[in-house]
Design goal:
Length: 151
């Protein structure tokens, strides 16, 4: 003998359904807030006004023909070798800022020491993925590059 489907059964089905939906939404919202690193730019309108300048800088840097090769050594020091059409760039000053992609860790300013055609950071990076903003200066020429390192 089967029992009849009553309003009590329907109420329990609706309560269970909305409990699952609300629980999933709360969980997803907490995860999203916990992993969001912040803003990309403070003011998108102001950033859009600088876009043509950024394109001009990119064209000037492309004309230099500098190609930085970025890696890490076993101790997680950053190694940067800048290649040109004539070979490795020599006598350059290199600096970089490493930022965590999700903003979970504070940015790290890196200074570099020249070493056999490469520049080696004096500071080691913690494990994980890092975004590098690299500035290379040789004489009166300055170039900036962005790269990603780690896993």
């Amino acid at each position: 003998m089967t029992r009849p489907f009553t309003g009590w059964h329907m109420t329990m089905i609706l309560v269970a359904f909305f409990t699952v939906v609300i629980g999933v939404n709360v969980t997803m919202a907490r995860l999203a807030i916990g992993t969001f690193g912040g803003t990309v730019v403070e003011n998108s309108y102001v950033a859009s006004q600088q876009y043509n300048g950024w394109l001009a800088q990119a064209r000037q840097q492309a004309a230099l023909g500098w190609k930085p090769a970025v890696s890490t050594d076993a101790a997680r020091h950053v190694l940067i070798a800048v290649m040109t059409a004539q070979g490795a760039l020599r006598g350059e000053r290199v600096s970089a800022t490493a930022t965590h992609p999700l903003g979970a860790l504070p940015p790290i300013s890196l200074t570099f020491a020249p070493r056999d055609g490469t520049a080696r950071s004096r500071q080691a990076l913690p494990a994980g993925r890092w975004l590098l903003h690299i500035e290379i200066v040789q004489g009166k020429i300055t170039a900036a590059f962005d790269d990603e390192i780690g896993a």
